[in-house]
Amino acid sequence: MKAKMRASREIRSGLWFYLGLAMVAGLLFAVYPSVLTGVILAFSCIALAGSIRAWLWHSGRGRRSPPNANRGRGAPPAGKAEDWFLDVEEDTWVLRDRAGFLFRLPSGKEPAAELVAFVRSVQNRRDSFLSEVRELLALEQAKYAMRPDAAREIAGLSVECVCVLSPIRAMVYFAGGSDDRVWHCDLTPDGAADLTFDD
Predict the structure, then answer these.
(1) How far apart are CA 23 and CA 198, in angstroms?
(2) In 3D, which of 150, 121, 154 has the Cα closest to residue 135?
(3) Average predicted confidence (pLDDT) for the chain
(4) Which one of 125, 138, 174, 194 is CB 3.0 to 4.6 Å from 157, fit for a cystine?
(5) pLDDT given at position 179
């Protein structure tokens, strides 16, 4: 509001100045029609232009955005989600799912779009994926009914990492096993299957 009032005062003062010069120019033109009249008219036009410029500035219409103000705000590169990061030690791209486990993709300039699509398909059906894994673990646990220690170990497994190997296949690794066994299973469009371990 204050800016608008200040701009209005500047416009009024500029207009009065312009009108005053116009009157003086008219008198001079009647008495001495010469170049002096043109000079006064030129100054009056400059004064009017300055008043208009001041109004535009105070109203914000004459301000331009700083150069490069929007640079760097574009979408992330194709196939690369903003939360992926490169694990240099493992030489893989890593994404932490909101359920707590990790997705891992082969390293490269950026995560491969077709593998990211596989990841998103798993995330879109996260609940059913975890349900499939629990069913697989329950079936495998039942197979070890005569070996209580192994059955308890399987019951304590949880998804730690999903390593995507191709657009249609991944390997699911589990946490919670004994120190000398690494449990994992396959993940395909048909679901989770083939639980096994590496010594």
Answers:
(1) 100
(2) 154
(3) 75
(4) 174
(5) 78
- Per cent of the chain over pLDDT 90 is 50
What is the DSSP track for 152-166? HHHHT-EEEEEEEEE
pLDDT of residue 80: 44
Report which residue type is found at 154: I
64 versus 180: the higher-pLDDT residue is: 180
In a 13 Å sphere around the CA of 17, the CA atoms on its Cβ side amount to 17
CA 81-84-90 angle, 5° bins? 150
Burial annotation 10-22 (CB, 10 A radius, 16+ → b, else e): beeebeebbeebe
Nearest to 11 by CA among 61, 49, 51: 51
Contact 196, 184 (CB under 8 A): yes
